[in-house]
Amino acid sequence: HIILGKGCEESYCEKVLHYLNTNNFKFHLYQQPKNYFDIMSKCEFAICTCSTTVYELIYLSKPFVCINVTSNQNMITSYLSKEGIITLNRDTLHEIASCIERKLNL
Prior knowledge:
Blueprint: E1 2-5, H1 10-22, E2 27-30, H2 36-42, E3 45-49, H3 53-59, E4 64-67, H4 74-82, E5 87-88, H5 96-104
Parallel strand pairs: 1-2, 1-3, 3-4, 4-5
């Protein structure tokens, strides 16, 4: 299962949902549940913004794709990209399905 945390503006979530549904991915969308860390620890893959959730996913050794949704995420986006971690933005969001497939070796 892919976990998609809904921590960004609605337009990003709508696009991500569209691309996931179009490519028939099975996923769950969570909106700030109280047991978020437990959910994250059990997920197979995560989609998140380039924010503090990244550190939790790295700690849990979970594969993920980050979406840069605001300029204050540019530094972490740059760092993650240098480390080979896939980051997307408004212009590259359409690549999310292929990024997931590559990360999960589908």
